Amino acid sequence: MTWTWKLEDADGNAIDTPDSDLGSQGDAESWLGERWRDFADQGATAAILLEDGRQVYRMELSPAEE
Predict the structure, then answer these.
(1) Which of 15, 49, 51, 57 is positioned for an S-S bond with 7, CB 3.0–4.6 A?
(2) Strand 46-51 relative to strand 3-8, pairing
(3) What is the pLDDT of residues 11-66, one digit of tens each?
(4) What is the spatial distance between Cα 38 and Cα 58, in angstroms, rounded to a whole number?
């Protein structure tokens, strides 16, 4: 199985995603956890986790309100 991320902007357009072919869901989640703020700074508003091309879940990339 291959786990990858797809990033989207506020209009739902795909944003170039660095190579993220990862071996497990946990690895994929850790990979995004280390980078999501950089992606948000580049205009990404959502990340979609894919397992072998199948959408597992979608997550908004916005900091928690304080």
Answers:
(1) 15
(2) antiparallel
(3) 999 998 887 778 899 999 999 999 999 999 999 999 999 999 999 999 999 765 55
(4) 18
